Queue: 4 jobs
Job 1
Amino acid sequence: MTTPVPPFFPPTGQEIVLILLGVVAIGSALLVVTTRQLVHAALWLVLAFGALAGCYLVLTAEFVAWVQVLIYVGAVIVLLLFGIMLTRAPIGRTADLDSGNRKVAVVVALATAGVLVTVVIDGFRHAYTPLEPGAGAAKELGTSVFRNWVLPFEALSVLLLAALIGAIVLSRTDIRPMGSSGTEARGADGPPPSAPPGAADPGAPPGARDDASSRHHTPPNGESGGK
C-alpha cells in the first residue's frame, strides 16, 4: 500500500542513513572497476555488498540483508579470493586489467545509469511506502516467492546449475576431443614411442652416438659383424 509522498526536508534519520549507505555503495563500486589490483577490487566489493546489506536493514528487509551478508560477502567473495589464489593470478598492479575502451565504457555506464534513474523516478515519483517492521521477514518473503514467483525461481535455479556445469567443463584441461578412431587422443596422452633397436639416444653425447651406430652397423656383402 502506498501513501502520498511526505516532504523530503527535513529528512528523517532513516533517510539520512540510507543516503549515506548509498554513497558508500556507489563509491566502493566505482573503486571496484577502477582499481588495478585484483585483491583490492575484491575487498572493495565486500564493502559495496556490506553497504547494500545496510540499505536492506534500513528498509526493514532483515532477511534479505542477512542473505546478502551470508551468500555474497561470506561465499562469493571468499570463492573469488580462493580462485585468485588457486589460479595464481597476478595480485599486484597489472596493466592487463586496464581496458583500452575506458571512454566507451564510461559513456555506456552513464547512459545506463541515467535510464535507470529516470525510469525509477518517473515510476515512483508520487508514491511512498512506509517502513513497517516485519514486511521483510522470512515468512512474508517465502510466501511471496513460493506462491507467486515459483516458476521464475525454478527457472533461475536451472540457469545457475547450467552455468555451474559449464564452468566445470571449461576449467577442465584434461578433456580433449577424441578423433575418429580415438588413436590420436591416446597417442597424445600415452607414453612416447620407443626407439628402434640400434638407434642412438638423442640425448647421449656425440661420441656415444657414434659408438652405438658403429656397433649395430651391418657389414657389406652379407658378412657377419661378430667373430
Note: The first helix runs from residue 13 to 34.
Job 2
Amino acid sequence: MTTRCWVDSAAIIDHLDEMHGRARAMTPAEGADRRAVLRVVALMMGACDKLLAAAYEQRTP
C-alpha cells in the first residue's frame, strides 16, 4: 500500500468521497452545487490561513 500525504482541502474531500463512495460522499459529484461547496472550502481555508498568520504576527517580539 502506498502512503500519501494530502494537503489540499479539495483533494482530501475528493479522496474521502472516493474511499466511501457516492452514497456517503460529502460533496456533490459535479455541477454548480459541487463548485459552491469547493468555493466555501477555499474561502474557509483562506480565512484560517489569515487568522493563523495574524496570530503568529502578534507573537513576534
Note: The chain has a mean pLDDT of 87.
Job 3
Amino acid sequence: MKRKLLFFASVAALLMLLLTGCPNGPKSFTLTITTSPDTALQITIDLVNQQTPFSQKYVEGTNVNVQVTSPQERDGSAFVVGNDTKYTFQQWNDSNNSNPRNFTVNGNLICPQK
C-alpha cells in the first residue's frame, strides 16, 4: 500500500510540474493590445494579422513588433450606406506615436491604443 501511495504521489507531483511549469524555468508574461474607442480593429503582431483585443503569452525578454493598421474604415451605421466610420492611429497610452512599435516583454503589458 505504501508503494502505491508513493507512486501516485510521484505521478501527481510530475503532472503538477508539467502543467504549471518549472519554477526555475523561463518566465512568461502576457502582452495585451486593446483599441479605443472601438474593438475588433486590425493590428499586425510580428507580421501576422490579428484583431483587438489581442492577448498572448510570451517568454520573458521576447521582442514583439506591433503595428496598428491605419486608417481603417467600417460601416458603423445602419442609416448610411457603406463605410461611414474612419479610425486613424494617434498614439499609445504612453503618448508614444510610433507605428509600428517594438515591445520587449519583461512583465505583463497592457498596451491600449487611442
Note: The longest helix spans residues 2-20.
Job 4
Amino acid sequence: MKRIVDTPLALTYAYLMARLDEIAEGVSSVLASSPMPEPLFLEMLGHSPGEVTFLIRSVVDACERRGVPLSKICVGQTLGSNAKRALGPEPLHYQGVPVDLVDGLDRGIEFYRFPVSDVSLLNL
C-alpha cells in the first residue's frame, strides 16, 4: 500500500510550497512597496509555533536588509508560544522590534510598519 506522502501529488505539493525564508522575502517586499495594507496580516494555518518564530525572525532580518523599519509584530497566543522561549523574557522583541502576543489573532501574524497612533492617519 502506498503512503500518501509517496504519491506524485504529495511530492509535487511539497515542491510547490514556498519556504519560510521565501515567504519572509515576499512579506518584506510588500512592506517596502506600499504603505497599505497596515497592518499586513498573514494567516498561518499549517505552521507550527517554531516555524512562526523562524518566520518572524526572517521577516525582521529581511526588512532590515531592505531598510524597511517595523514598529511591532503581533502574533496569536497559540503561534506565539514558542516565541516566549526563543526570544527571551518578556517583553518579547527581536532586533529591537516588539513582538506582542494577542488573544484575538489565533493563527495570525500582523506586521506593523508605523506606530499604532499613525495607522489611523493612513486610513483617511
Note: The two ends are 59 Å apart (CA to CA).
